[in-house]
Amino acid sequence: MPNWLLPENIADVLPSEARKIEELRRLMLDNFRLYGYELVMPPLLEYLESLLTGAGEDTDLRTFKLVDQLSGRMLGLRPDMTTQVARIDAHLLNRTSVTRLCYAGSVLHTRPSGLHATREPLQIGCEMYGHAGLEADAEIQELALASLALAGFTAVRLDLTHVGVLRALLDNCPAAKRDQAKLYAALRAKDVPDLQALTQDYAPLVRDALLALPSLYGDIDVLNKAREVLPDLPGIAKALAELAELAALAASAIGRAQVAIDLADLRGYQYESGAMFALYVPGLPNAVARGGRYDHVGEAFGRARPATGFSLDLRELARLLPTAERKHSIRAPWGNAPELKEKIAELRKSGEVVIQSMPGHSHELDEFECDRALVLEEHGSNWILKNLG
């Protein structure tokens, strides 16, 4: 096997793609800052028990593990940055007021999340701590929609769901609570035959409700149908009311989206605590961004705080965008003449890309198109720009 091959679902990012990713990263982080979000940079690895605190079993399965040669303790390479940022809020910043944090960095997965997905996503996102009201959820949804708008996506679908529906059903049926992991998997796959087999011995009220969840998908009118077919439990009533309010708020948000309800989409159920959302764009069958409320994660770090946020993979998003146009640039000869160096510095200061030719080499550039050349004026000592046509 050639020693330059990379592991499966791991790839280099070449110049034109890297530029798309970096420009998206800058645009989004700058926009987060306009909303008051402060940038944090968690470490790529940390002690395993800290990394997995408050996370679900799926996070454990996605985590690369290794032994620290200094301490002998187990380390984990982060598969997600959400719990790391929650740790920063709860343990390091220790603020009592509302805290807004954002981040961007690579994460690693033991297995790809989809057929063509990378195992090294470049995750970007933001989190808000300290406010339990739906205003926080609405701001996070608005930021997620605005991020896709910055990337040029206009046809976006926002799917809303709420873990409170399933939690209320499980709390009313001990047998269902014992099977919650299997139920979660069946609901996530919308596997009705599996649900029928799992629920055959449950209380009829809970069984009928669980079997109805996969069909409770569609526009916001689904909420009216849910009120008719689901039991009148306080947890369910509260969840449906919150979804109705968030759907109305999303309709007026920056980067408006088609709003849908999917009460069986419970990805992240293990640590989410309230409303959740997923964003879909043309060209990608899976959600391009996910977010939701996770109020209890900070408790594992010594301080429970209301929390909500979202994240997306910049590499996956950039793959959907057209190839970036090559940037116009200036070709200049190599030389140490003070007049030449001064002219090149002046052009670069004004924002121009100036590429000095190495002696004896031709130009092979993916990102830049040299449409002008810096040449010495004929019978003079001034350096001028010449169009190359």
UniProtKB/TrEMBL annotation:
GO molecular function: glycosyltransferase activity; histidine-tRNA ligase activity
Similarity-based family: Belongs to the class-II aminoacyl-tRNA synthetase family. HisZ subfamily.
Role of this protein: Required for the first step of histidine biosynthesis. May allow the feedback regulation of ATP phosphoribosyltransferase activity by histidine.
Protein's name according to its UniProt entry: ATP phosphoribosyltransferase regulatory subunit
Biological process terms in GO annotation: histidyl-tRNA aminoacylation; L-histidine biosynthetic process
Keywords in alphabetical order: Amino-acid biosynthesis, Cytoplasm, Glycosyltransferase, Histidine biosynthesis, Transferase
Subcellular location: Cytoplasm
Gene Ontology cellular component list: cytoplasm
Domain Class II Histidinyl-tRNA synthetase (HisRS)-like catalytic core: from-to ranges: 10-317
Source organism of the structure: Duganella alba
Subunit structure: Heteromultimer composed of HisG and HisZ subunits.
